[in-house]
Amino acid sequence: MPPPHARADRAELAALAEDTIAKGSKSFAAAAKLFAPEVRKSAMMLYAWCRHCDDVIDGQHLGFSRRPVAEQPEPMQRLNLLVIDTLRALDGDGGVDPAFLSMADVAHRHQLPTRLFVEHLEGYRMDVGEEHYETIEETLSYCYRVAGVVGVMMAMIMGARGERALDRASDLGIAFQLTNIARDIVEDARLGRIYVPAAWLAEARLEAKDLADPAKREKVAALAARLIDFAEPYYRSAFFGLSALPARSAWAVATAHGVYRQIGLDIKARGAAAYGQRVSTSRAAKLRHVGLGALKVSATRIPWPVRRSSKLWARPLGEAPGAERTSGDRRTRL
């Protein structure tokens, strides 16, 4: 049940969240329309909190943030305040901020472990600390915290509890984030954010500063293509996780899966030209993926006995309410 301290109606919070999504992620907004009503509300409300955290760290106003940028403390201070406010909200003191009221409602309603929210906030700490990544495993650790853990929480909202299903949900979030890194590789480099592992840069005979250099755009595009290729096994793993979800939820996830994967494929196909303007998906393409998503769901209504590859990055384990573990689970891979 939702916490008794909530000061705003769930429908009102969901409406605010929907407005946030419409501004922050058109791809997610399109896929979210396919969820059953209550799942959709919770998914949007969780996204709104995630977006709020992102906006606060960047000093923006796209989510629920209302404080003028001039009054914002330094990024690490903003992050520490986010952690405090999040933990307070989960403990029953959400104040009046819609972002935290929404997050607390979803956490209590779906019994989401506190550690998942903390892990997500740790991803922002990695950004604020300007952490550099030496290996692809370190980059994947970042991807899990900023996106994989959100996939886990979304799956739990949809009713998934078994660790194997949550692994697949994490894989989808990681695939999404690898696609984001490939899409924003130049823009992020201009801001001093480098997510491509140093080992890959060395292999390409590039330095971090070269990622923003127009003269090195062909080599940068090749790195982005490598990221897109690296995401493919994670997209593939996530596909086989659809069978663990109710049909409507699976349809929404399958649609988002198709839309985001296509963005990556388009980036790879365009090469250096992909960085003249942001790669996105047209309305017609989104509608096509809605149809393809329905076909994917029909193909996964009978669980396929496909084991999760042992080569994929393994997310941190914890005690999630209702989680089930058997000898055939995580460590032997699905």
TrEMBL record:
One Gene Ontology molecular-function label: geranylgeranyl diphosphate synthase activity
Cofactor: ATP
Family annotation (PROSITE patterns): SQUALEN_PHYTOEN_SYN_1, SQUALEN_PHYTOEN_SYN_2
Matching InterPro entries: Isoprenoid_synthase_dom_sf, Squ/phyt_synthse, Squalene/phytoene_synthase_CS, Trans_IPPS_bact-type, Trans_IPPS_HH
Keyword Ribosomal protein attributed: no
SUPFAM superfamilies (alphabetical): Terpenoid synthases
Pfam family, one: SQS_PSY
Keywords: Carotenoid biosynthesis, Transferase
Pathway: Carotenoid biosynthesis; phytoene biosynthesis
Family matches, as Gene3D superfamilies: Farnesyl Diphosphate Synthase
UniProt record similarity statement: Belongs to the phytoene/squalene synthase family.
Name of the protein in question: Squalene/phytoene synthase family protein
Species whose genome carries this gene: Jiella pacifica
Lineage, top ranks: Bacteria, Pseudomonadati, Pseudomonadota, Alphaproteobacteria, Hyphomicrobiales
